[in-house]
Amino acid sequence: xxxxxxxxxxxxxxxxxxxxxxxxxxxxxxxxxxxxxxxxxxxxxxxxxxxxxxxxxxxxxxxxxxxxxxxxxxxxxxxxxxxxxxxxxxxxxxxxxxxxxxxxxxxxxxxxxxxxxxxxxxxxxxxxxxxxxxxxxxxxxxxxxxxxxxxxxxxxxxxxxxxxxxxxxxxxxxxxxxxxxxxxxxxxxxxxxxxxxxxxxxxxxxxxxxxxxxxxxxxxxxxxxxxxxxxxxxxxxxxxxxxxxxxxxxxxxxxxxxxxxxxxxxxxxxxxxxxxxxxxxxxxxxxxxxxxxxxxxxxxxxxxxxxxxxxxxxxxxxxxxxxxxxxxxxxxxxxxxxxxxxxxxxxxxxxxxxxxxxxxxxxxxxxxxxxxxxxxxxxxxxxxxxxxxxxxxxxx
Length: 396
Prior knowledge:
Blueprint (H helix, E strand, L loop, with lengths): L14 E4 L6 H8 L4 E4 L3 H9 L3 H7 L6 E5 L7 H11 L5 E6 L6 H8 L4 E4 L5 H4 L5 H7 L3 H4 L4 H18 L7 H12 L4 E2 L2 H8 L3 H13 L3 E4 L15 E4 L2 H7 L8 H23 L5 E6 L5 E8 L2 E7 L11 H9 L4 E6 L5 E3 L2 E5 H7 L20
Parallel strand pairs: 1-4, 1-5, 2-3, 3-4, 11-12, 12-14
Antiparallel strand pairs: 6-8, 7-8, 9-10, 10-11, 13-14
Helix pairs in contact: 7-13, 9-13, 10-11, 11-12, 13-14
């Protein structure tokens, strides 16, 4: 996998780096700290040794006096190591920087919460952003295969994508005994894919995969703990209209969504493609927020009357609303939701992202090529800096 050009800021001290499998955490760390003591808990012998006696970690650290940085990959495999790390940070013979990675937050909640109280900084690694890939970014390829580095850089990316969900089922869900019925969870993964980019209705998903609503609620939590899915809450600050109460739901990567989503004769390619495009924008916005420090929050806006804006980003210095349209044409009627949002929040910056090639302004609202927007999105720049480009002209 490629290791250069990632936007993840280097933590100042010890940290817990979370991210789905294959997003490049280990590659980035090895490139950043090649001389570190690196312990990979995906290695069966290493995991077995430290699981039997977690205090062996102290012996390994003492055996490498030259190593200023201690990297422990997939620390959720041996959660007891958190106590050893905690003890060393508190009273070790000399300070070391600990960098712990994990692809599941489920087993880390209690121990990590204790360490994160001023001792470990939490950081997140996301799939590639378009600007990280530079000229190598291709929108259509990203919509088809996603941007997980493990898949993007594979010799056979289609095969890597097909096996990605199975990897999680085998090595995380089944091996860690997170669910009693792996078959039911596999059916749930297919059923929840139909909620990608839509309002999350747990009762409907439960009917689809023939399990109870409480079971589905637990499955969604597992998916979030494994960092494979995320919810986007409704934006309700200073609300002037009646809003829906449901969160929207997304699979964390457009390609993984495509791999989970069953397709048949009754499924329209433009519907699946539209949800993939919206999800691709969502994962970029999440990465942009995380790499800036996480002060902003991602929302959607959806009134009970059916007026919907796909994304609202709100935080210090940022208040922006984005609508995503798969079509290469945008008409004035397509801007009704953004205009309604501006009526309620005139201080917000807004933009329509579409599949056309030329930026323009329609009724005072910037209409931007989605590919151009994604390529320009960098955590060190404002969210909608492209809207101030001098070549935008008002459409007749």
